[in-house]
């Protein structure tokens, strides 16, 4: 994981425009939002999925950076006053608190565009695979994925929603990009259809476990470790797994999702061991 993260950090810096370009503020805002820490979970999943099917992870570096750009775009916009209205991200002031709302919005827009420009730089992979990667990442970041999930999140505030609506919201807002990261990493690695189906199921269950754990951490996490205020979901009357099912049941649901994620790649060899480790770390994390 450390090796993967080191590769990703170096590549992110190289793909981002330098701060000395004019107008400086937009490029500073982009770099601030991407390079201000973070677990790099989604790009690590890209590289690990590529490796799990016997692929060359160096070919997946552009995609790994692209999904982090998409993720950073979503965080910038989520933190805006019109959406989640959060002042801090990763323990630092949110982008709109540093650069103003207008520049923050434009920095998010620019990062989303940069993501697809970066995917297009992929070399050594069949063109039809790169095209399918673009399609899946676009779907996960748009109206078929996180945008729809965000809309349902907004509409669900202050309401008691049924479990199926909660699952729909989280599988789109959070899970869609996680699943796409795993599947597209497999595509870059040359996965066959059976492997892609297994990776898709893994990504869905991984994303569910991740979101449930995120909801739990909002209640009992350490603000110094999470980098954002604890209890914000409760204050905003957000629909979460603990709010609907309680903490203990939510923990069990997260563990069950992890077990199902690992079972879905039972046919993979030791090349997929890091995928298995990552799934376990989802429910054991503190950030």
Notes on the protein architecture:
This protein has about 290 residues and is an all-alpha fold. It has one domain: Farnesyl Diphosphate Synthase (Orthogonal Bundle). Helices cover about 70% and strands about 0% of the residues. The chain has a two-stranded antiparallel sheet. The longest helix has 28 residues. The chain starts with a helix and ends with a helix.
**Alpha carbon gyration radius:** 18 Å
**Structural class, from secondary structure content?**
mainly alpha
Shape: globular
Report the CATH superfamily: Farnesyl Diphosphate Synthase
Give the count of helical stretches: 16
- Our measurement of the CA-to-CA distance between the termini, rounded to an integer number of angstroms, reads 16 Å
Number of domains: 1
The CATH topology: Farnesyl Diphosphate Synthase
Strand order of the largest sheet: 1-2
CATH architectural label:
Orthogonal Bundle
């Amino acid at each position: 994981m450390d090796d993967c993260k080191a590769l990703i950090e170096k590549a992110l810096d190289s793909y981002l425009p330098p701060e000395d370009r004019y107008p400086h503020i937009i490029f500073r805002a982009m770099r601030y939002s991407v390079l201000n820490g973070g677990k790099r979970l989604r790009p690590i999943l890209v590289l690990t999925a590529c490796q799990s099917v016997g692929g060359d992870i160096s070919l997946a570096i552009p995609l790994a950076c692209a999904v982090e750009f998409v993720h950073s775009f979503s965080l910038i916009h989520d933190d805006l006053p019109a959406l989640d209205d959060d002042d801090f991200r990763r323990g630092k002031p949110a982008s709109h608190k540093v650069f103003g709302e207008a520049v923050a919005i434009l920095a998010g827009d620019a990062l989303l565009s940069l993501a697809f420009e970066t995917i297009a730089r992929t070399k050594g992979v069949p063109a039809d695979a790169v095209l399918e990667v673009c399609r899946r990442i676009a779907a996960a970041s748009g109206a078929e994925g996180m945008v729809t999930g965000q809309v349902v999140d907004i509409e669900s505030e202050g309401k008691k929603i049924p479990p199926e609506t909660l699952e729909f919201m989280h599988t789109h807002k959070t899970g869609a990009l996680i699943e796409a990261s795993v599947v597209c990493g497999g595509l870059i690695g040359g996965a066959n259809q059976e492997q892609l189906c297994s990776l898709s199921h893994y990504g869905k269950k991984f994303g569910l476990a991740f979101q449930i754990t995120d909801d739990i951490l909002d209640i009992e996490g350490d603000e110094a470790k999470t980098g954002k205020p604890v209890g914000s979901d409760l204050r905003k009357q957000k629909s979460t797994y603990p709010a609907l099912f309680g903490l203990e049941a939510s923990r069990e649901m997260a563990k069950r999702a992890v077990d199902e994620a690992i079972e879905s790649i039972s046919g993979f060899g030791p090349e997929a061991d890091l995928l298995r480790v990552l799934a376990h770390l989802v429910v054991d994390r503190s950030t």
